[in-house]
Amino acid sequence: MAPTLLRWISVAIVALLFAGDGAASHDYRDALQKSILFFEGQRSGRLPPDQRIRWRRDSALNDGASGGVDLTGGYYDAGDNVKFGFPMAFTATLLSWSIIDFGRNMGGELGNALRAVKWATDYLLKTTAHDGVIYVQVGDPSSDHSCWERPEDMDTLRTAYKIDAGNPGSDVAGETAAALAAASIVFRSRNPAYSALLLNRAIKVFEFADRHRGAYSASLSFAVCPFYCDVNGYQDELLWAAAWLHKASERREYREYIVQNEVILRAGDTINEFGWDNKHAGINVLLSKEVLMGRAEDLRSFQINADGFICSLLPGNSHPTQVQYSPGGLMFKAGGSNMQHVTSLSFLMLAYSNYLSHANHRVPCGGQTPATPSLLKTLARRQVDYILGDNPMGMSYMVGYGARYPRRIHHRGSSLPSVAAHPWRIGCKDGTRYYLSQNPNPNVLVGAVVGGPNCSDAFPDSRPFFQESEPTTYINAPLVGLLAYFSAHS
């Protein structure tokens, strides 16, 4: 096919995808408030007096007690009652990055975003309080997933799982170090003592992760698989942690670590993957900022990878790892909970567009549709608008936003009567009738973004279809940054 014709087709596809952009007006500020509020519905432990989602109550107050440690607090990752450390740490990292890059756009919601980060990091400090040991999960997933009960009623095993020198977990330890380091930047001027504690702990945890290399699912497969099994390998988390420690501490040793280990740790792999298990695209975008500003020529390869990542996202470009789009214009990757890919990749697009703007740079994409900062912002906004209701179903995929949104989400606490409405205990199997019911959930988990529609833009709005109807913290975390930006630049 002639290059001119190919370029014309690429432009036409992009124009078609963006045709609806701006057609509907969304209240991004309202959506931002709701996206942060969601995290209060996911809280574990003793709830504070200012808890705003009132149908939730204290839960899991004895976590860690059987092992003589305090592991209360933190977040339930999704619609179940297990505290998985790997996705929780990633959630904290992305919430922190959202504040670092877009906190100035959050207005009155900044305080709530800071509290959302601290609820996670307070817990991560508990899990890393003892040298040589990191607690990476609380709750037996097999028993938990065989029950449908409120977190306030839990009677399933609350086993605390840990990694140590003999049973390493560089993946979850590396992500924990990244979360602590990123959060230390967030609190640097707001709470210097807390920031210093976070950074010092991040340094210790990273040293542990690097010294004792291995994937945590090798020794804990019976507990973490198939839920949060490390499929991608632990190497990217070591680079990811070093990148955040470099940014947080400004110590040259972390930059040297990145350069020396770039090839060994496969920095160029899967350039357009980013999520709780794969950090490659995030590493490349994060490190590219300094390159684009002319301060880190030794990191140039990461910027080249970031450019390739951006080109792979543009509809119609003939990139070898082209990201697919649904007929309605939603990014789509095979597997469950597609919205996690939509929000995380869109966040990176938006962050990179800002880095490009400040450097007065654009990505040529091999002579096809060039990636300008404005084009990237348009594409990211199109994904956000799809989530908020500009889609073939005419449905907002954020609970509580808009007139039509998912009513039967796969979430135990939301789908069962609250303690206030039903003060008597609901046992393990007693909740099954609520799970199978066609009635809407009695408790609205405001701000929850569900896994989303399938590749044909269809959505069942049914609890048993958990891949489509279950919300997760790591869907919402990058969305916070996106909504903050568009609330100030709409």
TrEMBL record:
* Family annotation (InterPro entries): 6-hairpin_glycosidase_sf, 6hp_glycosidase-like_sf, Glyco_hydro_9, Glyco_hydro_9_Asp/Glu_AS, Glyco_hydro_9_His_AS
Q: Which UniProt keywords apply?
A: Carbohydrate metabolism, Cellulose degradation, Glycosidase, Hydrolase, Polysaccharide degradation, Signal
Name a GO molecular-function annotation.
cellulase activity
The organism sits in which domain of life?
Eukaryota
User: Is the keyword Secreted assigned to this protein?
Assistant: no
Its top-level enzyme class, in one word, is: hydrolase
Gene3D superfamilies listed in its UniProt record? 1.50.10.10
Q: Which residues form the signal peptide?
A: 1-24
Active site location: 410, 461, 470
Its BP terms in the Gene Ontology are: cellulose catabolic process
Q: Which Pfam families does the record associate with it? A: Glyco_hydro_9 (PF00759)
Glycoside hydrolase family domain: residues covered? 28-483
Catalytic activity, reaction form: Endohydrolysis of (1->4)-beta-D-glucosidic linkages in cellulose, lichenin and cereal beta-D-glucans
**EC number of this enzyme:** 3.2.1.4
Q: Which family does it belong to?
A: Belongs to the glycosyl hydrolase 9 (cellulase E) family.
Q: What is this protein called?
A: Endoglucanase
